[in-house]
Design brief:
Layout: E1 10-11, H1 36-50, H2 56-68, E2 80-85, H3 92-102, E3 106-110, H4 114-122, E4 130-134, H5 136-140, H6 147-157, E5 164-169, E6 174-179, E7 184-189, H7 194-197, E8 200-204, H8 219-239, H9 241-245, H10 255-271, H11 275-293, H12 298-310, E9 315-317, H13 318-327, H14 343-351, E10 358-363, E11 369-376, H15 377-387, H16 390-395, H17 404-408
Parallel strand pairs: 2-7, 2-8, 3-4, 4-7
Antiparallel strand pairs: 1-3, 5-6, 9-11, 10-11
Helix pairs in contact: 1-2, 1-8, 2-10, 2-11, 3-8, 10-11, 12-15
Length: 430
């Protein structure tokens, strides 16, 4: 078993402050000396002294995330912490400075290369550092190089234990598999890549208002007290490593959100007091906030708008579907390219869902039949159900930026629908 390693640029807890390997967890008796709820209260008070977070839920998440960093070898996932704001001077770097002192073996970096990042985690062995990247928006912005795509891959892989990055060592003429599992915090302006935020607790910082006061934080003066508190936090967290490493039975969120929040909820359950309730409440509230702020992909937006454009028709000619999509002034389709959305672009976007145009036989208003290239409702229904269920679209109608063709054609919802009861304009023959 590899012994804990303390790299030179790391800080926070130290290797001799009670660290133990996962194998020792089963044989070492937990220490009853510290009250976990009191320790977390102290961490919360320290953060609140220097930083104003956007909500009580965000404060809960930050405290639990810092505590979870001290027991990473025993966790089933390593949630990312994204600290972002719309502009400069929102407290992002200040919060990251505090976490650098409070977390286990923090590795703080700006403009880190993928080689440095992967080897920092790998050579730490069974005690991975807590990765902290400031000004992360510069790494993932439109001017970023391809090297940063490798960093994104490392950060995504490091969310789960056992994921490695293979690299060829020319000197030894062999492939080395670099460990990636580690906690990571990223601070920057604007959103991080969606694959990172999908694995993260997202804290949206705001610039302080005139009436909001905090104590000035000076690293040379105040950091030592946080380091001391980090040692206390480490001692308590390691004493509870078996409890924290046990999967949580009752999680208030599901799927990827549950993987992200489980370590934080486990820490809260081990601490006791009011922390278990606060953790579950924070998980629900912050996950809902994150879901509401997710920008729909072009393909998903198209699915939502095609559902509205079809109305009650069983099939539509391609040109009619395009006309209805582009008629919605709040949708992007009229300006999607130099001439708006074209039949070819429509086909390419829908192809990802295995939806293709075909010859459909339709009836004219006089009852005669004709054949034309178009789309059938039944070909969309499976993708509608999977990617944009009707109940979710209705509950969050504003997320897509508009309410689709059907809503656009009836601007006053208080007036009756004059087309109710009428036969659909187009009906596909069986």
């Amino acid at each position: 078993m590899t012994t804990p390693t303390t790299a030179a640029p790391m800080s926070g807890g130290t290797a001799d402050s009670g660290a133990s390997t996962p194998a020792e967890a089963a044989t070492t008796e937990p220490s009853p000396a510290l009250d976990g709820a009191v320790v977390l209260d102290q961490v919360q008070a320290a953060v609140r002294k220097y930083v104003i977070l956007p909500s009580p839920e965000a404060m809960t998440a930050v405290v639990l995330w810092a505590a979870a960093s001290h027991v990473v070898p025993f966790l089933g996932s390593a949630p990312r912490l994204v600290i972002r704001g719309p502009e400069r001077r929102c407290g992002k770097s200040r919060l990251l400075d505090m976490l650098e002192a409070l977390c286990w073996q923090a590795f703080m970096g700006v403009n880190v290369s993928h080689a440095a990042l992967s080897r920092t985690v790998h050579f730490a062995g069974n005690e991975p550092p807590t990765i902290m990247i400031d000004e992360a928006d510069a790494m993932f912005g439109p001017k970023a190089g391809s090297d940063n795509e490798d960093i994104r891959g490392i950060l995504n892989a490091g969310f789960q234990p056992g994921r490695t990055v293979p690299r060829y060592d020319a000197g030894r003429q062999e492939v080395e598999h670099l460990r990636t599992f580690a906690m990571a915090a990223l601070a920057g302006i604007g959103a991080m890549p969606d694959t990172i935020e999908d694995r993260a607790v997202v804290v949206k910082m705001r610039r302080r208002a005139k009436g909001e006061k905090v104590a000035p934080y000076r690293m040379t003066r105040d950091r030592a007290d946080l380091i001391t508190l980090s040692g206390v936090l480490h001692k308590w967290a390691r004493s509870q490593r078996v409890t924290i490493g046990t999967p949580v039975v009752s999680m208030p969120v599901e799927d990827r959100a549950a993987d992200t929040w489980e370590p934080l909820v486990a820490v809260a359950d081990a601490a006791g007091g009011d922390w278990p309730r606060l953790a579950r409440h924070a998980a629900v509230v912050m996950n809902q906030e994150k879901e509401e702020s997710i920008e729909l992909s072009v393909q998903t937006r198209l699915l939502i708008d095609t559902r509205a454009a079809f109305e009650s028709d069983d099939a539509l000619p391609t040109h009619t579907l395009l006309e209805r999509l582009k008629a919605d002034e709040e949708a992007p389709w009229a300006t999607f390219g130099p001439t708006g959305l074209t039949p070819r672009r429509l086909g390419l976007l829908l192809r990802e869902f295995d939806i293709t145009s075909r010859n459909v036989r339709l009836k004219k208003s006089d009852g005669s039949d004709y054949q034309v290239k178009g789309f059938r409702r039944e070909d969309f229904e499976d993708s509608w159900a999977r990617y944009c269920p009707a109940d979710e679209v209705e509950d969050d109608a504003g997320t897509a930026g508009g309410q689709g063709f059907a809503a656009m054609t009836r601007p006053n919802p208080s007036q009756p629908d004059e087309t109710a009861g009428q036969a659909p304009l187009f009906t596909a023959e069986p």
